[in-house]
Every structure is written in C-alpha cells, then in structure tokens.
Amino acid sequence: MNSYPPELLAQLAPVMFVAGLDEESASHPSASTSTKSNDFALLASRLRETLQAQRKVAIWQPEKTKTFQIILADKDIRFPPRKVVPPEDPMYSASHSPLSPLTPTSPLHPDGLIAPIWIRKHTSLVPSVFVLFLRIYEHPPSGATTNPLDVPDVSREREREAEERKRDMELAAEVAQRKKGTSERGIKLTVVLMTTRKMLDDPTLDTRLTFIRRQSGLDSRAALFVLSPVSQSELGEFVKSLQQALYEPALEYYTAHSKRVRRKRNRHSQTSYPNPIQGTTNIPRPLRPEGWTVRYEYKMACFAEFRGEDEVALKHYQDAHNILVVMFGSTAILPPRTKRWAEAKVLADCINLKICKLYLYNNEHALALSHYNTHVRIFCDFSRGWGIGEETYEYWSWIGRQYRVLAELLEQGTRSTLVIPTHRPKFPPVVSQNTGGGKALIASTLETETIRSMGVNPRHALQHSGFYYVLAAKCTEIRRERFLAHLEMEDSQKVFATSPGFSNEKKVDHLTIILELYTKAYELFKKHTVVNPQSHTTQSRLTLWIAYRIAQTYYDSAKYDMAVRFFERIATIYRRESWDSLLWPLLSTWYACARELGDIELSIKLLVEMLGHGRYFILVFKNVNTESLSHADANNAEGSHCVEDLLAILKVDSLVFLFVLFTEDSKEIDRVVLHMEEEKWKIQIPINLATRQFTSPRWLTSVEPPRFLPLKRENSSTLSVKHRSHTLEVSLSHESPAYLDEEYPITIGITNIDSRPFDVVVNVLIPPTEIDDAVNTIFMDEERSSSFIKGVPFGLLDPGANAVKTLYLVNTGAPGDRVIDISIQSRPQNSIVDSTEPELDDMTETTRLLVVPTVDPLKVVQSVSYRHGMEAWPGLGDLDTFDGDKWNPARTSEALVTTKIECTGPSRLQVESVTYEGEEHEGIRFIESSANDVAVSASANVVAHLELEPSDGFIVAGLRSGRLPILMPGDEEKFTWKLIPIECGHVRIPQIKVMDKRPIFTGETEPTAETMTLGETVKIVNVRLASSMGKMTGGQLELGSGDVNIFPHATGPAAELVAQHQDVQDFVFYAGWFCPFVQRVWIALEEKGVKYQYKEVNPYKKEKHFLDINPKGLVPAVEYKGKAIYESLVICEFLEDLYPTQRPLLPTEPLKRAIARIWIDFITKSIIPAYQRLLQAQDAGKQAELREEYKEALRKYAKEVKGPYFLGEDFSLVDVAIAPWIKRDYVLEENRGFKKEDVSEAWVRYASAIEKRRSIVQTQSEREHLDEIYGRYLRDEAQSEAAKAIRAGRSLFQASANISIDAPLLDVWEVLLDFPAYAEWNPFVRSQVVTDVLGIPTYEQIPQENLRLLIQAQIPPLPLPVDANTPANPINTQISFENITHIDTTNRRLAWRAIMLPQPLLDAERWQALSTTEDGKTFYESVEIFRGPVSYVVDALFAQGLQEGFNAQATALKSRVERG
Known about the structure:
Layout: E1 15-19, H1 23-26, H2 34-52, E2 69-73, H3 116-125, E3 129-135, H4 154-184, E4 188-194, H5 197-200, H6 205-216, E5 224-227, H7 232-269, H8 289-306, H9 310-328, H10 339-361, H11 365-385, H12 393-415, H13 438-453, H14 465-491, H15 502-505, H16 510-527, E6 530-531, E7 538-539, H17 541-556, H18 560-576, H19 580-597, H20 600-610, E8 618-625, E9 656-663, E10 672-678, E11 681-687, E12 698-702, E13 707-710, E14 728-733, E15 738-739, E16 743-752, E17 758-765, E18 776-780, E19 783-785, E20 788-797, E21 802-811, E22 816-828, E23 844-855, E24 858-868, E25 893-903, E26 940-947, E27 954-956, E28 961-967, E29 979-981, E30 991-996, H21 1009-1014, E31 1016-1018, H22 1052-1059, E32 1067-1071, H23 1076-1088, E33 1093-1096, H24 1104-1109, E34 1117-1120, E35 1123-1126, H25 1128-1138, H26 1150-1176, H27 1180-1198, H28 1213-1223, H29 1225-1231, H30 1241-1252, H31 1254-1258, H32 1263-1274, H33 1281-1286, E36 1293-1301, H34 1305-1313, E37 1325-1331, E38 1348-1354, E39 1373-1384, E40 1389-1394, E41 1403-1412, E42 1418-1427, H35 1430-1459
Parallel strand pairs: 1-2, 1-3, 3-4, 4-5, 8-9, 15-23, 32-33
Antiparallel strand pairs: 6-7, 10-11, 12-13, 14-16, 16-21, 17-20, 17-22, 18-19, 18-21, 22-23, 24-25, 26-28, 26-30, 27-29, 30-31, 32-34, 34-35, 36-42, 37-38, 38-39, 39-40, 40-41, 41-42
C-alpha cells in the first residue's frame, strides 16, 4: 500500500507516551547501592522491551483489546503548539492551529482538507496518556548494625525524614511541571514510582505517596503507581494492568476531541460563504463549507477509531466520503489537475479503503465490496469529465492502484482474522460403475452444479486477494499500452495533449510492476486451488493462465530463458487437458523465444507441433522435362526426397519445399506424403494437390485414404435449463384508508391460469416502520404476527381454479402509510423440495407490494378549566375540619372538561354513545355530564344570547346576541361578551342561551313556521369534577428497593427441578421462582417434556439483556433460537404449536379448543383479578365484599369442570392457567378468611386434584420465602405490575421513561448536562437555567449540587421534532424551581427536588441515570416521584401529560445523540 500515505491507512489506537526509562533516569542518584542501581537499570531495560512489544502500528488490526500504541519519549518532551501564538499572547483566542486552513503558514492554507501530518500528530507527537517513571528517594541504611531493642536514634530519624521530605518536594515539583504541560492538552498524566521491595514495607510510604500526589496536583484516579523490581512475567502483568487502568481516561481524551470538533462543525454549518467566481481558479479561495464538513467528519471518524468505536467511525467516514463526492462533482469547488484536487483524490481513496476495512472487520463482505465498486465507478465517471478517460494511461494507473490496495488489504486481513467466503462448486459424488442409474445421477449432478454456478459474477462476490492482483496487473498492461501509444505519438512529433505526469510516467518500469502483480496472484491462486476429493485433480486453469501471462511478460522483458521455463510447465498441462485454443498462442510465443535463444532443436519441435494448430507447409512443384528421378523406387510410383538443408530456412514463418522432378516420359504425380521424424516422433501428412488451401479447421484421422474430421467449433458452449414460470393471477381488494386500532381486511384472490395444478402458499411481511409507537399486527387463518406470517396454505389450485382468503391488518401508534409485502409461492403438485439443492426446486414466487394509508378515525381534543371554591373554610373549632369522610365544597376545586370529537377519515361514522368513565376516588365527586347528549348534524344556524337579570352583578358593554348563519361540522366559533362587574365577591355569571335555528327534517313531518322561528335549544355543558384530595401511600425512590431484594432462587422441589435444567438448550426459560405466571409456563414445559434451560432473573432489576428478551421487563419470557417470546399464555400456546405431538394440552377438535380458550380468558379476566384485589385489600369491609366476588367467580368456573380436571380425564391448558393460584389459596385462607368449602364441593374436589398433580408440586417452592413475598401484597406494599394495577388510584404518583441509545455514554451525559441547549431538541423541558440560591442565573451554567434550577416545561410536550425557534404553547407552560441534589459524574446520575412548596405538601424528586449495556449502547432512565397532598392534584391534572413529556424527552434525547 505504498501508493498512499501510511498515516491515512493505519488502524488508529490510543497513544501512550512512556518517559523515564532511559538508563540515566533508571539509575537516578539516590542513596542506594550500586547493586540496587543495577537492579533498576535492568528493570528499566525490561520495561522498555515489554512496552515496545505491545501493539504495533498496522493497517489491519480488528482486535478490540485495551492496549495502547506505546512510544518511548523523553521526560522533557514538548508537545506541538495548539495554536500559532503562545497562550499569553492577546491574539491567542482568535488564532488557529498551525495545521488549520485559516493559518497563512499552514500547508493547507487556504483551501486544503486534511494533511497526513495531522494524523501523524495524533499518533506520534501527542498522546492521550503520559506515563512518567521516576525513582522515589530511599534513605541509605546505617552502616553499623543495630540491635532491634535499641532506642532509635532520634536525630538520625529527623535527618532521614527531612531528607525524604526534601526529595519528595523535588519529585513533586518535577511531576507538577510535567502535569502543567499535559493538563493544557487534556492529557492524562500517570506517575510510576520505582522503589525497592524493602521500601514497600515501610509504614511511611503511604504518607509519602499522599504527600507527593497532593503536592504535584495528581488526581486520585489511576494517577500514581508503585513498582519494584519483579520477574519478567510479573512485569508483563503490570504493563497489562497499567493499560487497562488508563484505557478509560484515554477514551475520555478522544471523546473530548470529538465534542470540540462537533461544536466547530455546528458553527461552520451556520456560516454562509460566497459562491466561487468562474474563471478565477488560480486565485486562492477560502475553504468552502463542504470542505470544512469533510475535515470535521474525518476528524470525528479518526477520534472514534481511536476509541475503538468502529460503527461510529464508519458513519463519519461515510459522511466524509459522500461530501467529497459532492465536491468532486463540481469543478468550481475542486478544479481538476490542481494540487488540492490531487490531495482530495488521495483522501477519498484512503477513506474508501477505511470504510471497506471497517465493513470487513464486521464480516460484512458484500457491503465492503459494494462500497468499493461504487467508489471506483463514481470516480471513473468523474475521470471522463476531467479529460482522463479510458484512452489515457492515468485512468488505468488509478484503477490498477485501487485493485492493488484492495488486494493488499485482503492479503493482510487473511493473515490475521479475515475469512473470505468461499464460492467453490460442489463436486459430484462418486458413483459405482455397477449402479444402474450412475450415469443419470452424474449427469443430473453436473446439471445442478451448472445451474448453481450460473450468473455468479466474480465482481459481485468478494474473492481472495489474488483475484484483485490479476485485475491490477491487467489494468497495468492497458496502462502500458496507452503509455506506449503516447510515446509513439511523441516520437512521430504529432501534436497531442501531454498530461503533467508524462515525464514521470517515462520513469516507470511497467513490465516489472506487471510481473510483480502476476507473481503475487500466481502464488495466491496456487494457495487457493480447488482439489477434487474424488479424482484428486486440481482446477488450476486460471492459475495456468496467470503463469502464461508471467511468461508473456518475461518475453516482453526480453527474459526469454525465464519465459521458456514457464511455457514448458504450462504446455504439459494444456496438452494433457486438450486446451488447444489456449495452447496455440503459447506455442507461438514459445517458438519466438526459442528463435531468440537460437535453440534449433526446440524450434523444430515447436514447428512440428504447430502443424496441428493451423500452420501448414507450402509446397511448390515444377514440371521439368528431365531424365529421371534421382531417388525413384523400383515401382516408380512415388518419389521420396529428404530435405536435409532445413536449418537455413527455420527462421522464417513458412517452410517452402521445392521438389523438382526429372522424368523422360510424362509422368503423373499420384500423391505426395510428407514424412517427418524427430527422435521417437513419426509424422505422415498427405498433401492433396488438387486443394490449394484448407477452408476450415479439421483433424487428420487417416493417411490412406486421407480422411479428415471437421471441427465445427473451436470453444465449448453452455446450455442453460430453467423451469418454466408458473402463471398465476393475483388480485388484492381493500378499501383504503385503514383506521387505527381497527381490523382492516385485505382480500387476496389467486387464480391459476396455467395448464398445470399448483400447490400455493402465501407469505406476508410487514416491514418495520419509523412511525412513532407503531405496532402493526397481521393475521390470516390461525397465523398471527407483528412482522411475518409464513406458509399460509391456499390449497391445490387446478387450472382455472381460484382461492380467496382475507388478511387482516391492525395498526396502532401514529397515522401514516403501512407497507405490506405479499409473496405467493407456487409449486407443482407432489413436488419434493430438497433443501440441499434449492436450484432444483420448481417454485415460482409472485410478489405484490401494498401500501395502506392509515388514519386516526377520530380526533379528540380536550380542554380543562378550573375554578376554586369561594366559600369560607371551616374554622379549627369545627369538627368537619378533622372529618376525613366529610365532603367540604369550600376545600374543593371544580374542573370543566370539554371534549371535542372529530371524524378525520373519509368514511362516515355513527357515534352511538359517549360515556364518562372516571376513576373512583374518595376525593372526587362526579357532578354533571352531557356525554350522552351527542348531536351530529351537517350544519347549524346558531344564535347565542346573553340573558341578564337585575340581580346579576354584571353589565354588558355592547350587543347581547350574536348569530352564525352557517356553522359546518368540525368548525369552531367564539362569542365574546365584555362584562363589567358592578359588585365584589362571588358573583354569578349571567345565563347564556344558545339556539340552533336550522330546520330539522325527520322524514315524518315537515317543519312548521313556529319551529323554524323558535329553533332548537342547545344544551350548554357544565361538567364539574372535584379535585383529588385523598390519601396516598407507599413508594420508594431508591433503586434496588422493594421487591428487588427478594430471595434469589427457588427452594424445595422447584430447586431440584432447576438443577436438572442448567444445560445449554435452544429453548431458554427466563423465570422468577415466586411468580405464578412463571409457574404456568413451567408446568406446561414439564407436562410436554420439553428440553429447556432454566435461567433465574429478578424482573424488578430489569437488567439490559432481560429487557431485550421482554421489553416489559416481566417474567416469564423465553428465548428460542435467538427470538424472544413473552406473556405466559402466549408462551404456552407457542409450546403447543412448536411441539404438537408431545403431550397436547389443548383439544384437537376446533370447537373444544375454542371452549378451552374461553375459560382461559375467564381465568385471566375474572378469577385472577378477584384474587389479587382480595389479597391487597386493607379495609375489613372491603375484604368481605371482595371475598364474595372471588368465591362467585370460582363457583362459575367450578360448574364447568368435567372432573377430575376441567376437560375431564386429560390435564389441559385450562388447568395450567389456574393452577398457580390454587396452590396459593392458603394465603387467602390464613389472612383473608377465605375457605374452599364455601365455594362448592365441586371446587374442593377440583382444587385437590390440581394440588396433587406432579408437575405442579415440582414447580412450587417452599412457603418460607413465598410468605415473605406475599406479606408485601397483604400489606399492599408490593411493587409488581399486578400490585400496581390493583393499587391504581391510591398509590403515589410517578412518571418514568427509559430508552436504549446507540451512542457512547459520555456523549449522552454531555447532552444531558448541556442545559442551555435543551431548547434545540427537548419538547418537554424547553428551558432549564442554573441559578444561585437567590434565583440569579450563573455565568457558566454548569450544574452543581445545591445550586438551583429554573425549569420551564410543556405539559403535555410539544410535537416532535423541535428546535430553538419552536414556539411554546402558553396554555401548557409550567414553571418549577428545583434544588440540585446529586451530580454523580462517576455513576452518571443527577437529581433535583422541587422547592416551590414546603416538602410536607409536595415532595417531588427527579432522577436521571445512564448505564452501559452489554452490547455497548447507553441505557437512559428517568423517573420523577411525587409525594404529599399536592401530588394528588398533580396526578389528577398532569399525570398523562407528564408521562408523555418523559417519553418525548427520552425519544428526542436518543435522536439528538445518535444524530450527532
């Protein structure tokens, strides 16, 4: 890859500078002995060797290990300046980097993109981590031996401490001086102090280290290490641990660089630039926005590569490459054949290679090759526009270079971890000659392999590197031809345009390059030669062709002896395999080499062999009257002449034999036969004197009589056999648009218009959509899925027959188009599909793409207005003040809820009724509703009148009546009266009367003049809803509280069963031992005898991997062959479908199956909720009521039990559905007064049979830990979803959201803390200002604990997307004042608490947390919990809007960070 700067191609890795390991530093003067100095010199030497043996600079390095590119440096090394002026210069802030296009002295000034020196700066001159090795001072021991019992010498101890403190001060000063230089660049400084093993045991060492760290200003994280002389293996472990400890700071260093570059990019994207002036290409112009974008995208890609984030780097490299393509597309931006044009072209080639390499790291071979081919195609098209077309050597030089660097990249990759996909054909099996059908089987297999190999274009499938070396060599051959043509034109003094590089091209040895490329390709093709396992022969014809090209190149280079060696080996195989079309040109060139070498014997051999390949002797005969033939035989029938002096004419292309016949009488020449002998060769060729030339190639098969076999073709041909396509007619019938949350039918009709019967199946795919919260479901027959339905049978269709089925589509989420891909597959009747040979499958696929527009059937707009009670509150002496059950209107607020429902779809909808369904709450009273008084009309003639009475406390300024002649459906108009109050206090609003004077035609009677004059009175809605003032309970803010700390595993019989299912299986069962829904699935697994792997999880912790399995975070869930399934009954049904023959749990008869599902639904909707409500009820009266409700549900169920199980003798899925709650009846019996006997005798018998079932007993844990869990339910403290659902309306209020973000954790953290930028992306929190305790905004706007936040939020949030200019909705604007309670930069958490109201009234605290998932993504969580009396008001008024706000902020945060 020497064609490009190595800096632009090398794999980037974090850079570490290591200083202080030179011999002088290692033997730093101290009071140690010379032996110890030698020990430290040896330690330094070993450290240098170990560090230098770490990661090396290379182009191919896919490994993701925490290693550095380590560079040994001097302790006093100086880093390149960040800007052209020093920091103390007044112009420092306005200056730029020495490598910036804005700096006049820069090599990129004024319009350069990226120079290799920029990469060199970050890989060789500036590290991310600086490790400094130093010796810590050790006081010399006393020369005289002392008794341990002697009193220490106080003066000597003081002298030692003083000397140590002095040396430590000097060492700290040296570290501080080095830290000053690293801190300016944001580089992590780490100090390693080398000392003896004895010093490690010194009790004063920790104190000294603390002193040195504080004096030098080192931070507390991985900044100070101590090392003593150790063995080589221990030294390797130290270097490894050192790199792991410093890897995270290195990533932070490169992340900070990325953020700085991103900010610069955003600033430049908002800067306008003038268009370039045409015709002024030689005038320096500043870099255009496209160029700045390329710079910033390339830099961010490099920094992402430093961090090992290949996907992020790939995205930025692709963006940079796309912008470069745009720049090359305009000659005004990049004029051709200029210096900047050439630099940009090199940069584009290197970026292309980086992109291909990153794709190959991920084994995405097709994407890598596709991008590479696209790059070559685009720039080939550009080259023609630049005047560098196929007729120029520059064009072929560039293409050859592209193929060569790709080949070199693949060659390096295959030496490491890259595996090239194989595209080799399968060899036919060996068939015994005695087998009757052997020949037919071989022929069939060969045809199959022929079909399989059809259409495979090597350019569309990644090959080994030898393939691309061949292409590079062929391009170089064409390059040489174009160059020789230019050279010939120059020699002939013809006028032609000479490119700038023509003089350099003259210095290029093209033949050497071609020879090198073909030689590399030859070695690689030999390495990848395919060997037939049956015949042990190799398929090496392409390898031989490459060898022939090598020989031809040797011939062109006048190296004839080398060419002959290759020709001899190649010709042997060509003769054996009868490749005459390839052998003929080889013989010609071989013969030319023999002539040049003067090898007469070889020349004769080759000439004779060429006789059978189109070269003929030319014989010339003359009739001369002479006496006799000098060599006539006795019969005088033929003459035999020996051509002896043949050597004189061997160097001509044709051999001329001159035969002169001397005869006395007229003789007729009967025939002429040419006899030739060479060693063992004996050749006879008859000459037909009547034929002057051969009209077509032919083989000689007999000399006497002469017979020839005509050759009809020179090369072989191929025959393609394909199945005849099936002819089906497909019709799709549907009436668009579809409504959300409704079943949308699509009729699929298939007609067989072919002459053959076909089996037809249909597959339906609904691709993922970008519509928010969209969950689309399709179902047909018994198949139901949210993505793909496979193999719905339409049956056997005879010719002319048709079949019709209905596909149903159910859409949720936001409106928008839904796409459905329908595939109809047809096969002949009774055809057998062989999965090993899919090419033989006679299947025709007919596809239809259907776009279904989806709309919301109803648009509902609601508005709420409030009015506080104006009556006086009762005094403290009034008993009503302390009576919680007493309804006091004075302490309430009235809420008027107005709902507007509009039909937005094209179809007419009839509204039958509208019902108010409010949550029951002791602090809420429903007063009045007009929900059932719904009027729908085409238009209205509205008159509104304000009726004032003398007792009213208002007067009207202006007219009292208003009229709207026509008010169309969906329209809205406002009447406004200006009222002037004339009294104080609680004044009644005047009465308003609204009339609709539009005539109403009922079809029965005509409207009278009276009704048309009076009209119809319109009822005015006045709905008042008291605010929620009840009591709320419970709630924990701390993570890991509540049910998180449950007992971690099963016990008793269930534990034994768990131990038996720990082996890895395709079916993975995620369970919580305590959960009754889990026990459902567990029972079904045991009943059916399925092999499964049991994995215990705590669903309350909601770990990332488990959330991937079940987005709800609930157990049970299963993972089968990489696919996730959840919901207990869904899993049980899945088991039935997956293992239909293993102990069926559902009847096979459709009617009984449907009845079973009905009672399963009854269990889910009636029995289980009744059980849960009774379990959590706290009031004794309420418990009695719920106990009867539960028993009534059980009685209804027990009446249907056939005995001993629900369906009779067979244990079924109905029994599975209810069994866990029967096993938990004892909880209600012991705590809620429930008795089985009170239900019915049938229930007692049934429950007893269920409890004794083996699968149920085996899956039940011991009561000890179950009692602990159900104790929380009995106290109504449990945090499970079931408990929350039962407790709805009485628990504390909270809003929460979480989302997975495909971005580094630090990037998300930066966006969260960038409060001033919230308006640019956040639809919920539009403004978040950091203030001091007095509410005055801080200058830096950096959040710190105990500072304040002034938050302006939109509840509900604004529609996405938003930016800084998106106007707020004043009606939905809410202001809050918060105290920042936590800023945890280590664990990435922050929190604040509301302080606008006293905490006993409203305690609202919001937490936001970030964590890293197993797949490297960032998991964002946010929760706000409200306590206190005012939280009930928040719940009633803002619950839905707050939750929408949390969800909208999470979605917007994901978009903001991933979009960069």
